[in-house]
């Protein structure tokens, strides 16, 4: 969003000659276009789901000159030559893509038409999430923030408070909204698809809403009081500073907290009862939380518990007690504990509830008298409702087709109902509610789109090399005959303790309708079976994830789900490590591989400590600079390092020009080396009718790291 402040030029003056911000009234109606989801709930997962950036731009290009040049001139000449080589290589790839994609125009036309029809059918009237404050309801649609009255059936009468188009942010979407307690101010973060950084716009509400302040490069923000806002700044994919800004008569901004450790990332959260703001500093394995008292927000933050290596914790508040979601104690899985606010140290933490073995905590929501835990166990989804009144726990098993949930925003802790949505790759989101009064689950029939009935869901367990059982979720059309002849698309991720994405996608439903089989391999390194599942597949255990993937594909074929010639493997981001490794070690298991913004050069990335995420990622991949054994271990599975002349499957890669995490140069290098290896093998064998795989790279001009709008993802 570096250029977005300039986009305000025609609507407001970003900075006047005296450094002040000119206010502007927002008063236009916007035609409905695309609906973006509003992020107004707590993000309990890791602060990001993507891997570190690949390699430094231009690094892999060399410049050999016959004439001796002064060192500085050599450096400049080398950079200039490298840039030229890079541009020529990119141009060549784009021409190659244009030539190849032209051959598929009839297929593209058919697929696009079908996906658009499915999108129209499945984008039903759930609407974007609503934020209820007393009698007022705030919601976002089509780049606008609206205000309506609770109970008003006709939302066409809603007032427009904010418009991205009016402010010159037409290429950005609304990422997050926060309303001040007295509803006098609204803060909105705007994010472009081409950047990781967001811009926060603060609007003073009233009959004529006006822009009060614009803050660039913001990650998270919360209102401490009616006129005090805390926010974190983001730079080079890092977030380490917390600021406080006031909107009283004496406006000022000051730095409140700075994180010194490069492994830690800072964000801000407001407890459900609005009693505290929490400043959360988290690495991949360790946490530290500071409390800002919302009754006295100018007071220095208070430490809950100093960081302890290997202990993660997050804070909620209820009735003068801190409720602590933490990995402290044995087993090292998440458990709910509590402690008095006045003595919050670890020695005073008392157990409230512990999860069962191999159970993944997906989300948690705190209410006045209840705590709702969203859990995943053996592929099935559950709700555990803890009553603080009766001191009981009720467990509700959710429908078997459900693979993922999305918690809706509950701004009032006194709410008597918890709302959420259930979905799967082939089932559009369906709304459910749990009533605390009735102690039952209610399906909200707000849309007419039926759940896909002709899709069968199967859950399998594959035995890995070390006898560990690895879960697989399989979807196929119930009408399909001779499954061994059907095409199979296998999905894998296996990193950062993050689950495979199992939310609804139109293209997955289309494949099912066309007879495909979809398989999701929940290998170690991911988080499907809890924190221990991740720990058993990171650093010196990374090869276990590869063994798991091989075992899953082998079992699928053995049970009659397709065969190697009809099998494709799909992965995004860090999932490219395991997919690329399998492509090197067992290419005969698959016929094609599809990678999106793939991380394929682990070794070179982890050797470059000046890259923004390398230090932070050492807890996932290890530190090859400090440990020679670690270097050799990474070298043993790194996709780029292990490319060799052999019969490879065909490969389709989507990369993004503006990807800050996986620079395009690293992907280009991988593609070039893979092509050479495949061609060398074909030449060396020279068998009649020898098959040469097609290795295709599609470079997207728009979109960031695996984060595209519906329109861009449709084109992909």
Automatic annotation (TrEMBL):
<dbReference type="InterPro" id="IPR051543">
    <property type="entry name" value="Serine_Peptidase_S9A"/>
</dbReference>
<dbReference type="Pfam" id="PF02897">
    <property type="entry name" value="Peptidase_S9_N"/>
</dbReference>
<dbReference type="GO" id="GO:0005829">
    <property type="term" value="C:cytosol"/>
</dbReference>
<dbReference type="InterPro" id="IPR001375">
    <property type="entry name" value="Peptidase_S9_cat"/>
</dbReference>
<dbReference type="InterPro" id="IPR023302">
    <property type="entry name" value="Pept_S9A_N"/>
</dbReference>
<dbReference type="InterPro" id="IPR029058">
    <property type="entry name" value="AB_hydrolase_fold"/>
</dbReference>
<dbReference type="GO" id="GO:0004252">
    <property type="term" value="F:serine-type endopeptidase activity"/>
</dbReference>
<keyword id="KW-0378">Hydrolase</keyword>
<dbReference type="Pfam" id="PF00326">
    <property type="entry name" value="Peptidase_S9"/>
</dbReference>
<keyword id="KW-0645">Protease</keyword>
<comment type="similarity">
    <text>Belongs to the peptidase S9A family.</text>
</comment>
<keyword id="KW-0963">Cytoplasm</keyword>
<dbReference type="GO" id="GO:0005856">
    <property type="term" value="C:cytoskeleton"/>
</dbReference>
<feature type="domain" description="Peptidase S9A N-terminal">
    <location>
        <begin position="90"/>
        <end position="440"/>
    </location>
</feature>
<dbReference type="InterPro" id="IPR002470">
    <property type="entry name" value="Peptidase_S9A"/>
</dbReference>
<feature type="domain" description="Peptidase S9 prolyl oligopeptidase catalytic">
    <location>
        <begin position="503"/>
        <end position="680"/>
    </location>
</feature>
<keyword id="KW-0720">Serine protease</keyword>
<dbReference type="GO" id="GO:0006508">
    <property type="term" value="P:proteolysis"/>
</dbReference>
<comment type="function">
    <text>Serine peptidase whose precise substrate specificity remains unclear. Does not cleave peptides after a arginine or lysine residue. Regulates trans-Golgi network morphology and sorting by regulating the membrane binding of the AP-1 complex. May play a role in the regulation of synaptic vesicle exocytosis.</text>
</comment>
<protein>
    <recommendedName>
        <fullName>Prolyl endopeptidase</fullName>
        <ecNumber>3.4.21.-</ecNumber>
    </recommendedName>
</protein>
<dbReference type="GO" id="GO:0005794">
    <property type="term" value="C:Golgi apparatus"/>
</dbReference>
